[in-house]
């Protein structure tokens, strides 16, 4: 049996915050990260475009030897995952698997809220997909879900302004809009993998009792559980502790920002998707 790395896909850089937690939780495995930076951001794109781009990148990860691919991107998980799992995998690579980041997060939300009112912060694409309310209500029908799109948060992070004073205005603006929907929200879901880089500013503008759920640690624990429950897939994963990075943009451009998200220097390879 040929073994291969765990593939981690994101439209850009945010998935590196998830990969960082994978490496921390499951350091023995090999990982291959692909960022579709040349076509990012996905947040405002149509369902069809996100699906097309995501499927193309999943195919590339399969071709690079990954038997398991994690969509470490909320927009891709919301707009493409289900179709890929149900329609494409059976005919494309029936023995491979593609997982997302939304379900692991929604499975545990109810364990954190006391008021049973939860706020979700995400991109326009994630919010309009209604994926979080749908999934949370499957597990916790009694929980009320309020959503707020934060279209300027990703550009702030990717332009190196996460720690700047200007970020405070837009962080407070979207949080105020969310909390105006209900004063009883006691748990926030950071529904975008870029948002952990803004968590200190988010904490500064919400009540002290507010629970803030970042996806990296949640999804890493979920992946560990998945592998323990699927030994046949676990046996197909290589264990060399290696990290390989690909980007659809120029490697130098990717490397400049990647270190901010991954907390260490990154060397990347270019992958051509015909942009």
UniProtKB/TrEMBL annotation:
Family matches, as InterPro entries: Asp/Glu/hydantoin_racemase, Asp/Glu_race, Asp/Glu_racemase_AS_1, Asp/Glu_racemase_AS_2, Glu_race
Annotated pathway: Cell wall biogenesis; peptidoglycan biosynthesis
BP GO terms, sorted: cell wall organization; peptidoglycan biosynthetic process; regulation of cell shape
GO terms assigned for molecular function: glutamate racemase activity
HAMAP family recorded: Glu_racemase (MF_00258)
Role according to the record: Provides the (R)-glutamate required for cell wall biosynthesis.
Family from the record: Belongs to the aspartate/glutamate racemases family.
Name assigned to this protein: Glutamate racemase
Source organism (scientific name): Dinghuibacter silviterrae
Lineage: Bacteria, Pseudomonadati, Bacteroidota, Chitinophagia, Chitinophagales
């Amino acid at each position: 049996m040929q073994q291969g790395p765990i593939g981690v896909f994101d439209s850009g850089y945010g998935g590196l915050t998830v990969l960082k937690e994978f490496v921390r939780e499951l350091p023995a495995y090999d990982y291959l990260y692909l960022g579709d930076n040349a076509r990012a951001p996905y947040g405002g794109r149509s369902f069809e475009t996100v699906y097309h781009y995501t499927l193309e990148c999943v195919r590339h990860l399969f071709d690079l030897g990954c038997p398991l691919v994690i969509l470490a991107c909320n927009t891709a998980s919301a707009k493409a995952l289900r179709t890929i799992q149900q329609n494409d995998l059976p005919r494309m690579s029936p023995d491979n698997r593609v997982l997302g980041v939304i379900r692991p997060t929604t499975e545990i939300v109810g364990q954190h809220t006391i008021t049973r009112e939860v706020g979700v912060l995400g991109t326009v694409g994630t919010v309009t997909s209604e994926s979080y309310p749908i999934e949370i209500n499957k597990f916790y029908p009694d929980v009320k879900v309020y959503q707020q799109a934060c279209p300027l948060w990703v550009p702030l992070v990717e332009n190196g302004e996460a720690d700047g004073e200007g970020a405070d205005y837009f962080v407070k603006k979207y949080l105020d809009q969310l909390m105006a929907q209900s004063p009883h929200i006691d748990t926030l879901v950071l529904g975008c993998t870029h948002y952990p880089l803004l968590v200190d500013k988010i904490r500064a503008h919400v009540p002290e009792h507010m629970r803030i759920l970042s996806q990296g640690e949640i999804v890493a624990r979920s992946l560990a559980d998945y592998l323990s429950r699927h030994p046949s897939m676990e046996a197909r994963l290589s264990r060399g502790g290696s990290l390989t990075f690909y980007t659809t943009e120029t490697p130098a451009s990717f490397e400049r920002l990647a270190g901010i998200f991954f907390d260490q220097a990154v060397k990347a390879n270019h992958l051509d998707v015909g942009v």
